[in-house]
Design a protein that fits this description.
By secondary structure, the chain is an all-beta fold. The chain contains no helices and eleven strands. A hairpin with a 4-residue loop joins strand 7 and strand 8.
């Protein structure tokens, strides 16, 4: 079955960095686009970034452009999100997502808290 497991979240000071990971299994990871989303406290789900199957094309929300970098390792079935220059407004639960067989699959999320 499809499984997505995020890790790498934590508490970081403003201006700091974190690298999130998403370990994927149960589907052909290298064949589909992958996405990161986040949900801040009391707010709806926000799309953060997407990367194509080959890993050579990516898109970002305006709120993170220039600070976050999405990448993937198809040999390791892993998705990453490098987050630099973090701001308090980046505080959220971060989720990776895929669509496989016309169904959406989400990980359990990893908490990122940006605070001094």
């Amino acid at each position: 079955q499809v499984q997505l497991v995020e890790s790498g979240g934590g508490l970081v000071q403003p201006g700091g960095s974190l690298r999130l990971s998403c370990a994927a299994s149960g589907f052909t990871f290298s064949s589909i686009e992958m996405r990161w989303y986040r949900q801040a406290p009391g707010k709806g789900l926000e799309w953060v970034s997407s990367i194509n199957a080959a890993g050579d094309s990516s898109r970002y929300a305006d709120s993170v452009k220039g600070r976050f970098t999405i990448s993937r390792d198809n040999a390791e079935n892993s998705l990453y999100l490098q987050m630099n220059s973090l701001k308090p407004e980046d505080t959220a639960v971060y989720y990776c997502k895929c669509t496989w067989g016309r169904l959406d699959y989400w990980g359990q999320g990893t908490q990122v808290t940006v605070s001094s």
